[in-house]
Every structure is written in structure tokens, then in C-alpha cells.
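Hey team,

Filing this mostly as a record. A colleague (T.K.) asked me to run one chain through the structure pipeline before their review meeting, and I want the input and output archived in the tracker in case anyone asks later how it was produced. No errors, nothing strange. Just documentation.

Input sequence:
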Amino acid sequence: MKTILLPTDFSENSKNAINWAIQLYKKEKVNFILLHAYFSPQAGMSSVVSINEILRKQSISDLKDYKKELENSFKNEKHTFSYESIYGDVLHAVKTTLEGKENIFVVVGAKGMSAAEKLFIGSNTSEVVKESSAPVFVIPENVTFDSIDKIAIAVDFQKNIKNDLFQPVLEILTNSKAQLRPFYVEDDELLIDKKTEQEITNEYAKQLSQQQFAITRINEEDPLTGVQKYIHSHNIDLLVLVNRKKSFFESLFHKSFSKQVALQTDTPLLVLHD
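Output structure:
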């Protein structure tokens, strides 16, 4: 059974991301884990112990109430809900919960800015995305689930893709019949010869079980602008990024971009780690 980890602070933003995930996987057997991280400000030792216990009890109480709310709202026999309350920050809580688990994804919300801005500028969301060992969905604020009709994959033309890297994408394609739209933003510093391009194209096609697989090239001085234009011009419902060492997108994960150059999109992201 698939497991979906749902970090929440009980805000409307996190609840929106959770609703999106539940609807995306409405046809599959899934156990959803509601995860709440709590911590107390610095104080005297006796005060901290007392405050931590109060926060722990409140966290568990809120999780129980929210679990019941979701079960009553969606009433899907294929879905089960559990919860975890962990002391510490969100990243620590996510890492702790992921330990030893397989076939698990994480879904987080991005409040205020677009999902991509949150990812590249820095936030709790970006830390979870960069440090998580599992695939992570990033759902922008106020984006409600309708359907997944077009999935864009940002290709970086690096060889040796990890086996089953795109399994989450394959599952979505199977359940949604969505169209796959791979694309590549030209980088003057990384020129790809025709042989290498064909080898990598074939590797992607094999991983994604695609008989016909054509990668669209985008000429744009600013890579982020190129991604933005592609998403908007093709009405993309989900953007897939692969975070790999020494790749174009790995460099994005370690830079800080202003709002003027960051993506202005309300498209959900799926970040895979290779």
C-alpha cells in the first residue's frame, strides 16, 4: 500500500495541499499520515517540560480532530488515516517519519508565493524538498485539484537515471491518462551532442514507458523564464523536476532568486531525487 506523508500546521494552506493529495489518489489504496511538528520557545528547564507536555497534548488532540474531519469529508474505503506528533521543526519531523519506510511520498503546501518561488527562495517547504529522501509534491496556495491532463518533465540531459525514478509519474499517467510533455531549457554552458541527446532521450523513454518521446528545446537566456513560458503556453497541470547532483536544477536548489526572476506559476510541482 502506498503511504502519503502530510505535514500540517492546521492552516488553510496545508489543508488545501492535503485535500489535493487525497483527490489525486482517490482511486488507489493509500494510508495518509498526518504529521504535526511542535516546539516551545527557550525557557527554564521546568517551564520547558511543562510547556512541551501541553503542546504535545494539544497537537495530538488537533490531529485526532483533523483525522476525523477528513474521514467524514471524503469517505473513501480505499483510504486510511493515521497521525504522528513529533517535537522539533518540520524537517526533523519529516525525516524521522520517513525512516525505514518505502513507497512513501510527501505533500507540502507553499503559502504566499508560488510553489517554485518557495522552492528556490527558501522556506520550510524548500528544506523539506531538498532534504527529503522521498518524492515531494509542492502544492501552491489556493490551487484546488481538478484533473491532471498535462505533465511536464524538465529534462537535464544527464545520463544514468536511477531505476524507478519516475515511478510516481508512471502511476499518475496510468490513473489519469495524462499527456507527457518533456522539455529542456538550452544552456550555453552545457552543449549536448546529438549522440548523447539521443541516448538520454531513449533512457527517459524507457523509464517512462513511452514508445514516442520527443523533447522540446527552449531557447531562453534565463532558464527560469524558459520554464515559466513553457508551463503557461502548454497549460501544464504538474511540473516534474529531478534534483540531481551537478545538474541545472541542483544549482537552482542552492541559489536564491528574487521574486522578479523566480517562477510566477500556480502549477503544482513534483520533485524527484536521483
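Quick notes for T.K.: The chain has two domains: 2-140, 150-267. Confidence is low (pLDDT under 50) at residues 117-122, 253-264.
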